[in-house]
Amino acid sequence: MPYYRVVGEVPRKRHVQFRRPDGGLYAEELMGEEGFSSDSSLLYHRHLPTAIVKAEAVTPAAATRLEPNVPLSPRHFRTQELSSAGDLVSGRMLLAGNADVRLSYATSDRPSELYRNSMGDECVYVQRGRVRFESTYGVIEAGEGDYVVIPTGTIHRWVPDGPVNVLAIEASGHIRPPKRYLSQYGQFLEHAPYCERDLRAPAEPFTVEGEEVPVLVRTRGGLTRLVYRNHPFDVVGWDGYLYPYAFNIDDFEPIVKKTHAPPPVHQTFEGPGFVVCSFCPRPLDYHPEAIPIPYNHHNVDSDEFMFYVGGDYSARKGSGIDVGSISLHPAGFTHGPQPGAVEAVIDAVGRGVTTTSEMAVMVDTFRPLDLGRDALSCEDPGYAWTWAR
């Protein structure tokens, strides 16, 4: 993270004696990236974070096989037709992925078990509902429109308050704000579309008593369930630059041009081999002869995965796209507005329409996305031909 935080009790110096009220020592845990060469946080546990009493292999319950997008085709998936059998971790339905990122959809109203992803960071977008995110760092209350960014190795669980729908972006490395938004020291710059004030992180420790507590751990070798001697939510304080946080899409400040701006102006995060963008309500392009709608384009290096989360999609009229839809426009295919959309938006501007209300979360990958069984199960088979009607 780009700025330093202190939560709870910590000693004045790092790696010095820090004693519990009974005279025993708190146990340090350094959570650090890139082999002590990047961001880190230092957590202080009541018990040893290394003490496990059992380990067992776990067979994944969900389908994880991916198939190439062959024959090459634009796709439309209707997540409204999907229903999870599990929680917001075990019930994730894998839609698409490659060696850099996995994109899953989940809907659930039940708490998840404790979970640690040791393969990479996660960014979970809450499309609908409210959920409590509990972790060794503390608690974040999240709701509709929140991105929750979770550093690699964070033990956490999700506790929904009623039904919750999410898009889970699981990276093979770290998810961060784009470098061009930050100073050389990590401060958000004035031209950035959001800043430190928009980020919400745990504000106080969250402790839970318990013994022989299972934690599901994902590694490159598969799934393991480790049983900890004491509950891992026993942290009395931490400080550093590495921690989970939430950012709401409504706090993204769109960048507007006289004529239509390309997707990089909507970029919100970057990960290894992919970017995440937020398309938010904004003023329409205001050049007197502007065409305030995307032009036909072919991103020769990217697959475009677009999750439509709110607003009006008049530019996609006739395509079947609606709230809850996901479109996949792969490299090798030129895509753009539906037939008639350009003329329709010019007419709308002539009638005094000055803003757009559409909202979407986009993931652009720099390697081709393969397709999951759950995506194919809710595919609209006629989508690819909608530009030819």
Automatic annotation (TrEMBL):
Keywords: Dioxygenase, Iron, Metal-binding, Oxidoreductase. The keyword Cytoplasm does not apply. Homogentisate binds at residues 313, 335. GO terms for cellular component: cytoplasm. Its cofactor is Fe cation. Fe cation binds at residues 297, 304, 335. GO terms for biological process: L-phenylalanine catabolic process; tyrosine metabolic process. Gene3D superfamilies: Jelly Rolls. InterPro entries: HgmA_C (IPR046451), HgmA_N (IPR046452), Homogentis_dOase (IPR005708), RmlC-like_jellyroll (IPR014710), RmlC_Cupin_sf (IPR011051). Residues 23-248 form the Homogentisate 1,2-dioxygenase N-terminal domain. One of its GO terms (molecular function) is metal ion binding. This is Homogentisate 1,2-dioxygenase. It comes from Nonomuraea aridisoli.
